[in-house]
Amino acid sequence: MIPQNHTNFIYIWGNPLDFSLSPFFQEHCSILAGSRILYKIFRGSAFEFSELLKSERCIGANITIPHKIEALELCSELTEKAKKAGSVNTIFKANGKITGDNTDGTGLVKWLKIKGEPLENCAILGNGGSARSIAAALFEEKCRITIFGRTEKGWEKNFGSFHNLSEWKDDVFTISTLPFEVKGKNLITIGYSSGKASIDAAMMLAFQGWLGAQRWFGNTLPAEKFAEIVKLHAKAQSNEQLILNLATKNEI
Q: Is 68 a residue of the active site?
């Protein structure tokens, strides 16, 4: 049980983080679950971050681009999911040890199952860290996976087959992890930027966050409640950006 006589910290390490939803929905959810925390953005070096993790008041962290692979070296132990994904997006403390986990793929798969998407045959666009963790999670679901990228990195053969990005055709369910827009009738994108978070990106983030909160707090809010809160904050962020855009154009 986390002591409640002082405020504990959870950090998010990455860059850019200007439009991250995580600080808002994680603090909101922690309050409703009776586990008051401060969720803080950190943009410093790996050494500085490792020192923060050692504090008794730090109960964990999220890691995002570009530090997910670097974070492997900061952990005393890794979960099987982190090992398979080859990266860490969630840190928690187990028996006093800094432990790395990866909820990227499992968070998305949970959402896709709720949506009822077909997971027998999937394509993944891009072969960076997020793509690898998604491929690992889909592989556990017995999905046939084809990964498309510009240059093969070697990990792809552990989960499926690799093809050049130019060979992709929109004929199977596809998940795009690319940093630019791709269109297709069978495609979802998990990337998001200010005011442009798709429902799939927001819900992947929601279930990633829910899995992380389980690591930090044990029992927490139901996954569905987590999803509702993330939708609320995503909508608020989108509305804020719309207002800023209109103000910039001198339309209000």
A: yes
Half-sphere exposure of 54 (CA within 13 A, CB side): 7
- Residue ranges making up the domain that contains 90: 8-102+199-246
The gap from C-alpha 62 to its chain's centroid, in whole angstroms, comes to 8
| Contact assessment for residue 221 and residue 5, using Cβ atoms and an 8 Å cutoff | no
3-state secondary structure of 212: helix
Tokens representing residue 187 in the block: 């495609």
Which residue among 40, 54, 68, 225 is the active-site one?
A: 68
Residues 22 and 60 in one domain: yes
Query: What confidence tens digit (pLDDT) does each residue in 125-181 have?
Result: 999 888 999 999 999 999 999 999 999 999 999 999 999 999 999 999 999 999 888
Say whether 62 sits in a helix, a strand or coil.
strand
* Per-residue pLDDT, 192: 60
Assigned token pair, 172: 């199977």
Report d(CA 210, CA 238) in Å as an integer.
22
What's the mean pLDDT when you consider all of the chain?
87
Q: Name the CA dihedral angle for 211, 216, 220, 222, rounded to a multiple of 10 degrees.
A: -10
pTM of the predicted model, to two decimals? 0.82
The tens digit of pLDDT for each residue in 91-106 reads 999 988 999 999 999 9
User: Helix H segments across the chain?
Assistant: 22-32, 46-53, 80-85, 104-115, 129-140, 199-217, 223-248
Q: Are residues 234 and 180 in the same domain?
A: no
